[in-house]
Design goal:
The chain is mainly beta. The protein is built from five helices and 61 strands. The chain has a 26-stranded antiparallel beta barrel. Strands 18, 46, 47, 50, 52, 54, 57, 59 and 61 form a nine-stranded mixed sheet that branches.
Length: 959
């Protein structure tokens, strides 16, 4: 110790001279001295301890200095103590684990070891479920002498393996709402029996019709190991909720890396006394059956009248669908238009559509015609054929067409297997615009899941003939190969395509390679991508004397991940190049114009709270063009912010990003164009969503074209449950030009009709049978406000004690009564086979029987599975009417029965043969004041034991 102090003083004095020489300030001197002393003592102590351990004549070592374990695991250790001294060693060994580790063996052991001897001490510890993973847990072993002075110490480090195990469940499975319910409150319990703290996200999803296009509500928090918490989800009850036929609320729990740890569902129903049947296979939220009549551009020369409708009609043998879009103008200089109008009929295996047809194939076909499909479910084959002309107006010719509209026909065949699909299509088109007659035969083969990948290969042949020449024919072909999928943590996306110049498809004269690979990590992703696209189309069209050639190249690498717990950020440097020969400009000698740049893309997405969200995307770097090869800076960004009813979007751009912009700058002699826009919007509902308001404003400034603004607003009000009126206004201002557009209309929603359906109306009358004669007579009262279920659909009786369920399909239905204030009736069943049915159900004043089933056994009983769940118990009254219930997991049973005398029996059908029911079950006299309680014994039979007496052969029997 004296040497250590002298060394410290010497170094301190030396440093004082060093400080004087270099004029170090006192504050800096203090910090430096503190660090120097700390390092000196740390290094010296470590050297000293090492010397002690090496030179010590006493050895104390655990059998396992490092242990890997799981929660709730018992660990065995052995502590070795060796005395190399020449005198006996007497002392005490203390074992001190952390609080989360339980010591099973003794915590103190007195030792006495002769010179040269050793001692082995067994140690048992239990790793509790509260022991946290990801940390070093220490079991410390301390050897002290008889005076409790420390001789030496050692330790064992315990590392607990990670156990991620968060559970979630809803405390209620269904909720009943009525006109007095102002909000839904759904309790959800989340527990973490694992051994690591988990950052989790809880997402609750209501049907879109109740979300008002808002985000799903989320809650993010950290739950500690061996902890649980109760989350209550609240949402105001709207008129739409009460008028709905019921809906599900879904809860999803996510770990921080996006893995799902649990899901829960809660059914919400409204209790009404009168409702119509709703097919549960049809989601009312997506009911599009409606018609809308409106006027647009009111009080202007462009005033028009619009009639829109869509929906479907369920028939006995299929489904009839329709769509209507009709526009007529007040002034007759433009003909009436009927677009996006069609009628369809579909069954399970076939369907036909007539009217406006849109078909997206190698050639995008649109016009008036018909389409037919047929499915062969036995052989997994499907067939399709159609025909159309190129006119989009169903009741006349397009006013803007100066050429004949053309015609087209197509046919297709698809064969599906479990993991693959093959399809072939043929298209024939006469195109006056392209001045050609085109034919395509295309084939496609798909492997849906090949080692985690989806692989698609395409090969097509084309035939193009000049429309006004028989001899000019151009054959062509196209091919493509796509791979998408995931292999372990690698996500692959590859899209490749080639077509010759005269190929009549949409992508003619194309060469395209689009490759991307992503490495998925727990909290971040790394990706690399390369895109090359070249287009050199050719045509017979007399309106296109020159067909441009253009190409783009894009290469990037990037990384995205979560920072600051919940902000998602990404950054990616990239290179981009574009070339185009479509611009022939005065003053420019170049035929091909190019633009290239080196940029860095970045994005930030930050969910601030449940109703607040912020995102920012930026791209910046240096670019050059064929007009000016000097490197110049450019920048563009997009900002989106949402909070409650308010939404803000803004864009900002400096510089040029495309060849087209560079051409415009060259013509306007601009070096650095500027674009700026800001668009705030808001939407708010009032009067329980009956009134819906939207408003928005757009302000834009472009250094090339000047300033412009756009103002929009819309209001919609429900005058009836399925009728609403709406109005909207749009005002546009650009430089010195401005115009306004006013629209006013009405929308009528229709119920989901079902033509030809045979159904019934069911009326159920509930009354309190005061004299218990099962007849509604004098003295009985109607049960107002009583809850009942018809096939799990909730009803509440009106003032007359009745409920009405209309338009029920002919079938059998179960009517279940709730036990309300001691009035109850068993389930009733009714088969509907006529137009109207009436069912009267007497409620009886009830009492409650509560019981328990227990097994009785001793050491001689058979060893059996002592299951108590699902055992049938029967209660029989004095008129031999039987009531049945079953026990729960703990063997508990409960009856709600009319008052009277009952005999209880246990159905032994499902009991093991080694069990018999106690025959001394007392008769129950039930009243409505207090519940009757009893215990029923299930006696396990004793095994047959044969006893024999053995005599030692060395002992003679008594004579």
């Amino acid at each position: 110790m004296r040497n250590r102090i002298s060394q410290l003083l010497y170094y301190s004095f030396s440093f004082y001279r060093f400080r004087s020489a270099f004029r170090i300030e006192p504050e800096g001197l203090f910090v430096f001295l503190f660090l120097a002393v700390f390092l000196f003592l740390t290094v010296f102590d470590s050297v000293t301890l090492k010397a002690q351990s090496n030179d010590s004549l006493i050895v104390l070592t655990p059998s396992k200095p490092l242990v890997s374990a799981s929660n709730e695991e018992l660990i065995d250790l052995t502590l070795k103590l060796v005395n190399k001294k020449k005198i006996p060693l007497v002392g005490t060994i203390s074992i001190n684990p952390e609080k989360s580790i339980n010591l099973i063996s003794k915590n103190k052991t007195v030792v006495s070891i002769n010179p040269g001897d050793s001692l082995f001490i067994p140690v048992k510890v239990f790793i509790t479920k509260k022991t946290v993973s990801g940390q070093r847990h220490v079991i410390r072993f301390v050897l002290s002498d008889e005076s409790n002075n420390l001789i030496m110490a050692t330790e064992t480090i315990v590392q607990v393996s990670v156990k991620r195990n968060v559970n979630m469940f809803s405390l209620v499975s269904s909720i009943l709402i009525d006109v007095s319910t102002d909000s839904l409150r759904i309790p959800v319990r989340i527990s973490n029996p694992g051994n690591t703290a988990q950052r989790i996200t809880l997402i609750n999803r209501f049907p879109p019709v109740f979300q008002n296009q808002a985000f799903h509500s989320t809650q993010e928090f950290t739950i500690q190991p061996s902890a649980d918490t109760l989350i209550t989800i609240s949402k105001p009850v709207t008129r739409k909720m009460f008028q709905s036929e019921g809906f599900d609320v879904t809860f999803t729990g996510l770990y921080s890396n996006g893995d799902v740890f649990g899901m829960a569902y809660v059914r919400v129903q409204s209790g009404r006394s009168d409702r119509a049947y709703h097919d549960p296979n049809i989601n009312e939220s997506y009911n599009a059956n409606s018609f809308s009549l409106s006027s647009q551009g009111m009080f202007s020369s462009n005033e028009s009248y619009l009639l829109n409708g869509q929906g479907n009609l369920a028939l006995k043998s299929g489904n009839l669908g329709y769509s209507l879009d009709y526009t007529d103008w007040k002034n007759t200089y433009s003909p009436a238009m009927m677009r996006n109008t069609w009628l369809s009929y579909e069954t399970g295996n076939m369907g036909i559509t007539a009217g406006n047809i849109n078909k997206n194939m190698d050639i995008n076909l649109s016009g008036r015609g018909a389409n037919l499909f047929l499915n062969d479910t036995t052989n997994n084959d499907s067939y399709e054929a159609g025909f159309l002309d190129g006119n989009s107006n169903l009741i006349g010719n397009d006013s803007y067409n100066f050429l004949p509209s053309g015609t087209a026909g197509w046919a297709g065949y698809t064969h599906r297997k479990e993991n693959s699909e093959f399809s072939t299509n043929v298209i024939y088109e006469i195109s006056p615009l392209q001045n050609s007659k085109n034919a395509i035969l295309s084939n496609s083969y798909t492997l849906s899941n090949y080692k985690g990948l989806r692989i698609v290969a395409n090969l097509s042949a084309g035939h193009t003939q000049q429309r006004d020449s028989i001899s000019l024919i151009k054959p062509s072909f196209a091919s493509g190969f796509n791979i998408n999928g995931t292999i372990k943590k690698i996500v692959i996306s590859s899209s490749n395509y080639f077509s010759s110049g005269y190929y009549p498809g949409m992508r003619r004269g194309a060469l395209s390679f689009n490759e991307r690979i992503t490495y998925m990590r727990e909290r971040s992703n790394i990706w690399a991508g390369f895109d090359y696209n070249y287009f050199a189309p050719k045509t017979f069209s007399t309106f296109r004397l020159f067909m441009p050639k253009y190409s783009t190249i894009r290469a990037e690498i990037g990384m995205s991940g979560t920072i600051f717990k919940k902000m998602i950020a990404s950054v990616s440097p990239l290179y981009f190049q574009e070339s185009n020969n479509a611009f022939r400009l005065p003053g420019s000698t170049k035929e091909v114009h190019t633009l290239s740049y080196w940029n860095i893309n970045s994005s930030f997405n930050y969910p601030i709270s449940n109703n607040q969200y912020l995102s920012l995307n930026t791209e910046s770097g240096y670019f050059s063009t064929s007009f000016n090869d000097r490197l110049r800076f450019h920048f563009r960004s997009n900002l989106n912010y949402k909070r409650g009813i308010f939404n803000l979007s803004s864009t900002l751009q400096f510089g040029t990003f495309y060849v087209g912009e560079a051409v415009n700058n060259f013509l306007r002699s601009q070096d650095s164009p500027r674009i700026f826009s800001i668009i705030p919007t808001a939407r708010k509902n009032f009067y329980r969503d009956k009134l819906r308001l939207e408003a928005g404003l757009a302000l834009m400034n472009n250094s090339s074209y000047g300033s412009s603004s756009f103002l929009t607003g819309r209001a919609e009000y429900d005058i009836l449950p399925k009728s609403s009126i709406f109005t909207s206004i749009n005002h546009n201002r650009f430089s010195n030009y401005q115009f306004s557009l006013l629209e006013l209309g009405i929308t009528q929603k229709l119920s989901l009709p079902k033509a030809g359906a045979v159904n019934s109306d069911l009326e159920v009358l509930i009354y309190k049978d005061m004299n218990q004669n099962n007849i509604f007579d004098q003295g009985d009262t109607k049960a107002e406000g009583h809850l009942l279920y018809i096939n799990d659909i909730a009803f509440i009786t009106d003032a007359s004690g009745s409920v009405v369920y209309k338009k029920l399909p002919h079938d059998s239905y179960r009517v279940s009564m709730s036990n309300t204030k001691g009035w109850y009736a068993p389930d009733q069943y009714i088969s509907l086979d006529k137009k109207k049915h009436r069912l009267e159900i007497p409620l009886k004043k009830t009492g409650t029987i509560k019981g328990n089933l227990i097994y009785v056994f001793d050491e001689f009983s058979y060893e059996i599975n002592r299951n108590l769940q699902g055992i049938t118990v029967v209660a029989t009254d004095e008129n031999n009417v039987r009531y049945v219930t079953k026990t729960n997991l703990e063997g508990q049973l409960i009856f709600y029965l009319p008052i009277g005398k009952y005999t209880l029996t246990v159905d032994g059908t499902n009991l093991p043969p080694e069990v018999e029911v106690d025959r001394n079950i007392p008769q129950i006299v039930l009243d409505s004041e207090s519940p009757a309680n009893l215990t029923i014994k299930l006696i396990i039979k004793p095994r047959k034991i044969e006893t024999k007496k053995f005599v030692s052969p060395n002992k003679l029997p008594n004579r």
